[in-house]
Amino acid sequence: xxxxxxxxxxxxxxxxxxxxxxxxxxxxxxxxxxxxxxxxxxxxxxxxxxxxxxxxxxxxxxxxxxxxxxxxxxxxxxxxxxxxxxxxxxxxxxxxxxxxxxxxxxxxxxxxxxxxxxxxxxxxxxxxxxxxxxxxxxxxxxxxxxxxxxxxxxxxxxxxxxxxxxxxxxxxxxxxxxxxxxxxxxxxxxxxxxxxxxxxxxxxxxxxxxxxxxxxxxxxxxxxxxxxxxxxxxxxxxxxxxxxxxxxxxxxxxxxx
Length: 257
Prior knowledge:
Order of helices and strands: EEEHEEHEHHHEHEHEEHHEE
Strand order of the largest sheet: 6-7-8-3-9-10
Largest sheet: 6 strands, mixed
CATH class: Alpha Beta
Radius of gyration: 18 Å
Shape: globular
């Protein structure tokens, strides 16, 4: 499925959270959205998921308004991992992951073979198979975050929207999660992730999308977008930016005036 925002504007109360924004995530691409706090990154993901109503413009799915899709069809097409998602009920981790199969009309307690395979694969991808039968409420914060990612992955949607998917993870699982997202793009998915870690974004993104005050101010390959000048103007930091054989190195050195 091709997801696209055209002239997208969203208002939250009296505040313009997004203004006239165009974005078309591509199948096979990991697009990482970056920007200062309050720039509108989460609102953009919510609008792409159909959870924030545009005040102008539209979000399109294969050229049709996203709002024209049924809730079930939208949930099958777009998996959304919110920022700081919680798990309050002591459900086994495997059951949490199985919730990702609900959009397919599958019953969690009696998954068909395809659903069971998707759930077990998702648990393996996030390194939680050994904890599959533990209550999710007994896991660490990082493990719970990975369980919620497994739920999104188990949907096997062609579009994955992830808001700060590595924020609660240790370095080992940060790298593993981003490698997993890249693997999903190689399988043909379109992945859009919001991230604050510019070093990881520079290393893993195919495209960097920079949002500032609700407006798209730059997008393109990491080396073309994450320049010292852009980092100083948008993020107010002086940074070392260096092209290396294994990718772009970005390291903030101090605050810019």
